Amino acid sequence: MIRFLAISFLACLLFASCSLKTTEGLRQVHFNKTEVENPYFSNPEIDYVYKAKIEVYKKNFGGILIIKKTAPESHRVVFTTEFGSKLFDFQFEGDTFTKHFVVEDLDKKFIINILKADFKLLVNEKTKIFTVYESENQRIYKTQDAERFNFYFFDDESEKLQKIVNTSKTKEKVEVDFTTSEGKIADTIAIKHSNIKLTIDLEKFKQD
Amino acid sequence: MNASEIVAFKEKVIASAKTTKTIKTDFVQYKHLDFLSDDVKTSGKMVFKAPNLVKWEYTNPYQYSVIFKEDQLLINDGGTKSKVDIGNSKLFKKLNQLIVNSVKGNMFSDSDFTVSFFKSSKYNKAVFIPKDRKIASYIASFELLFNKNDAQVYEVKMVEPSQDFTRIVFSNRTLNGPVNDSVFSN
Question: Do B36 and A70 touch (CB under 8 A)?
C-alpha cells in the first residue's frame, strides 16, 4: 500500500511537472488529417505589410514588417524603420535561412536566433500533425519542430487560425495570437515571449 | 551640368536655403523592395524650423511622429512616446544632419560625400555618394531633385547598396509661414 502511494505520488509529481498549461482541459481525439496549414502568408500575390511595435525589456521600437511569399517554399521577411531604412532582411526557404542584410547593432547571434525562430513560426505554412486535441470550441493541432512543439488553435465554427503556441516539453515559450476578419489575412498579430521580455505587435496596413 | 551651370545651380540653392526659415509640406514616401508587387506607401506632413528643428509626422496608414531636436529623437508611435539619445552615435548625427540639409537642399559643402549634378527639362538633380565606409554600407547614394524655378527640393531618394530605395515626394509646400516651437515637443 505504502509502495503504491509512493509510486502514485511520484507519478503525480512527474505528471504535474511535465504538463503544459496549453493542453490543460483538452481531450485528445482521433484524426485523419496529416498536415496543419497556416494560411496567413500563403498567397504569393499579396504584399503582406504591417506596422510593427516592439517592446523589449520596456524599451519601445517601431517599424514596418514586410512579408512576401516569393516561391512555393520561400518567404522574404524584411523589417524597416518608419523612414524606410532596412533593419533586417531574411529569407526562409524550406529549412534554409538566409540573412540578406542586418544592421550592425542587431547582428548578434542571440538576437538573430530569436528573430529567426519567431518569423519562421509565423511564415511556416504546412507542418505534419503529431496529435490532435479538442476543447469546447477549438480544435488544436500539435506539431513537432526539433526539440520544440507547436500547438495550432483553430476555431471550430469559423475554422480560423487563432493562435500558435510554441513550447518545449514542459514550458510555453512563445505565443502568437491572430485576429482576422476574413480568415486568409491576419489583421493583427501579437507575438509574446514568456522567457524573455519581448513582445511584437503587428497591425496590417489599411488599404488606400 | 557643365561647370558654370553647377556654380549657378549651387548658388541658387544656397541662396534659397538661406532665406528659408520655416517649411511646412506634405509628403508621400514610397519604399521600393525588388520582390514586392507594389511599393509600400506611407504619407504625412513635415515641418522644419531653422536652424535645425525637424518634425516628420506620418498620418497614413498609421500615426507616427519623430522630432529631431538637438541630440535627441522624440518619438510618438501611435501614442507610445519614447526618446532616443543620439548624442553618442556619430552615424545617427550624420543621418540627422543629412535629413536637415536635404530638406533645405544645402548639402554641397559636405565633405563626406562625392557630389555629381544632372539636369533635365524640369528638374536639377544632385547625387551624393558617401565616402565613409560605414555610411556606405547603409546608403549607396542619396539623390535630391530640385525644382528648376525655385530651387526647392521636391524629391529625396535614398538608394541602398542592394538597390532597393526609399523615395519621398513633397507637395503643398509653404515657406516661411509661422511655426510655433511647441510643434517640436512630444
Answer: no
